[in-house]
Amino acid sequence: MKAPTLSSLFGRREVAPPPDIAAAALRSDRFRLERENEWRRLEEIVSRMESGRLRKLSDEDVLALPALYRTAASSLSIARETTLDAATLAYLEGLVQRAWFQVYGPRTSFVGWLRGFLGGEWSASVRAMGPDVLIALAAMIAGTIVGWLLVSSDSQWYHALVPPGMAGDRSPGASPEALRATLFGEQQGTTGLSAFAAYLFSNNAQVSILAFALGFAFGVPSILLLIHNMALLGAMLWLYHDAGLTLDLIAWLSVHGTTELFAILLAGGAGIHIGRAMAFPGNRSIMTAAAESGRRAAQVMTGVVLMLIVAAFLEGFARQLINETPGRLIVGSFMLVLWLTYFYAFGRRTKDSGD
Amino acid sequence: MASSSYIAQQVKRRRELLTPEGLSLPLTVAGRGSRAAALIVDYIIINFILFATTILLLYLAFGVLGMKEGAGPGQLFGTLEFLAVIWLIAMFLFRYGYFLYFELGPRGATPGKRLSGIRIAARDGGRLTAEAVIARNLLRDIELFMPIVFIAGAQEGEGGLAGLAAAAWFAVFLLFPFFNKDAMRAGDLIAGTWVVEAPKRKLAETLSLSAGARGPSQETGATYRFSDAELAVYGEYELQTLERVLREGKSEALVAVAETICAKIGWTGGQGDERAFLEAYYTQLRARLERDMRFGKRKADKHS
């Protein structure tokens, strides 16, 4: 709370003269005076660690840290029983707490974390939420079918499902030629594609973060969101099916869609995973269940953001540059196989041997 | 009494955390007010960075537009597009990366949290992991922005009944910290974290080394000795109040407290020499209370 004073800016303050221990009138103050040099040393080490100047820490200090921490902790428990000096107690509590956070702080570097993440932790988390991914998949398929059925029974539904700004030329009653043009339209070179890709990424990332975050309410809103978004796809499928362009649309979508829809599937699955863990915690307390599933889901979500970056690149560049159906299908199915292999085949052995 | 209700509030927020090696660690759950203050500071910083980035990129964009000469429209567009990409990515990164970067650091706190003297910690006493920090920050959107958007929408009457229902539902997230004793928000719950106070205190003076505590007063030469009966009137609460007054060292407060004590124990001396008098009384009272404490006898305040 206190603003940094000048002495802390200039590093070491001058060493205080040794206190006159015997002169202290109280036994509890003598206890304090005998130990306060160790406390101050611990405080200095901890302060340096907190400010991130780890390299300036000498080996002796690093080695001394656990012992100093334990000394301070035991001083605290003795002081609580023997002293009524509120300021010293408060200081010790603060010091022990700060030291504890440094001793037990997050210790992996970013690179180390990334290596573990890509090298198996991500795919292990995806595998661990298998049922939830299946539920999300069922919701997405159901959504597509619902969208298709609604629009085929009454084409007015199309306008309700597809926002007008997004529909553009793609509305019921459009000629097959017009629809074909939306898939294989003359592209104006490569200009504007990277901005488009960046926009798509940030938009999709926010949608999938939403799908994940809504899982907190026992997963129901995540499922609804998935169904709603996929109904749009069902409606579009129906539209192009009428024009005899089903395969072309699927190919057009699959370039980025296999990656993007997979990412949204995982995001929804992560949301459902949390919701399910909280609704059916089993033998764990709800809090533990929520925390365990939440951390696993967060790991999957980090991966989802990475997948969406890939999807944005595919959508922004590859789809516009490959202007024919077979090529698009090949890219799309290649990506799908790649993700499936990575999640469900890669890293199994390391996990099994680890257990 | 204002001060004692404040202390009761403090006690209510105190928790004992059992560390893996079996040490009990005292923690104080951060107040909702200081957390809100931290959030506001963080958003001011984030928005300032976003604003500065936008201005800088706009400035560059106008610079590009200014040098029309000697460049084809294609190159011009390419440069502007590049700036647009940087802007979109920067917006995303600052919005989500800011909290992740600072909370994963050794202080476990964003600049706003540091200013309010709070930090995040794992609730189970274990290590704070990257996953936990990511999880608690991903939920911020639905806890903060969606409720505000929906509640504002419901006020305008958008979406009719469904809009109202959505607003009420999101309000649950917004108000979540008020419905549990640890003041956790939804993100804390699923990440297994909580926000605790991280006080940074300096080691204060040893009061029993002061002149008045050790012998004759320097000003008057008088030595203050109190009998057992005179010390028996006060307990630990009064001792701590006296300690606070002595450490703050405001002369009016010293005079007022000295007068109160004198009236209570029936003394008349010590005028003009309040500091030494109080130091002596403090030391002797503490010696008495600590001696009783070692025998398992504690006196909470003057009423007990």
Amount of beta strand of chain A: under 5%
Question: In percent terms, what proportion of residues of chain B is strand?
Answer: 5-15%
Low-confidence stretches of chain A are 1-14, 187-191, 351-355
The number of domains of chain B: 3
**What's the helical proportion of residues of chain A?**
over 70%
Strand count, sense and barrel status of the largest sheet of chain A are: none
Secondary-structure element order of chain B, N to C: HEEHHHEHHHHEHHHHH
Total helical segments of chain B: 13
Q: Could you tell me the mean pLDDT of chain A?
A: 75
Query: Domains counted in the coordinates of chain A: how many?
Result: 2
Q: What's the shape of chain A?
A: elongated
Mean pLDDT of chain B: 77
Q: Could you give the order of strands across the largest sheet of chain B?
A: 1-2
In whole angstroms, how far apart are the ends of chain B?
Answer: 18 Å
SSE series of chain A:
HHHHHHHHHHHHHHH
Short description:
The complex is a heterodimer of chains A (355) and B (304). Chain A has 355 residues and is mostly helical. In chain A, 77% of the residues lie in helices and 0% in strands.
Write the layout of secondary structure elements.
The complex is a heterodimer of chains A (355) and B (304).
Chain A lengths: L5 H4 L17 H24 L8 H24 L3 H18 L6 H19 L1 H24 L3 H5 L2 H4 L8 H9 L8 H21 L6 H23 L3 H34 L6 H36 L3 H20 L3 H7 L1
Helix pairs in contact in A: 2-3, 2-4, 3-4, 5-13, 6-11, 6-12, 10-11, 10-12, 10-13, 11-12, 12-13, 12-14
Chain B lengths: L1 H11 L1 E5 L5 E5 L3 H35 L6 H31 L7 H6 L1 E5 L7 H9 L1 H16 L4 H15 L11 H6 L1 E5 L13 H4 L13 H4 L4 H13 L2 H15 L8 H21 L10
Helix pairs in contact in B: 2-3, 3-5, 6-7, 11-13, 12-13
Explain this structure.
The complex is a heterodimer of chains A (355) and B (304). Helices cover 77% and strands 0% of the residues of chain A. Chain A is built from 15 helices and no strands. In chain A, helix 3 runs antiparallel to helix 4. Chain A is elongated and about 100 Å long. The model of chain A is unreliable at 1-14, 187-191 and 351-355 (pLDDT under 50). Chain B has three domains: 13-131 and 185-197, no CATH class; 140-181, no CATH class; 207-294, no CATH class. Classes of the chains: A mainly alpha (355), B mainly alpha (304). Chains A and B meet through helix 2, helix 3, helix 4, helix 10 and helix 13 of A and strand 2, helix 3, helix 5, helix 6 and helix 8 of B.
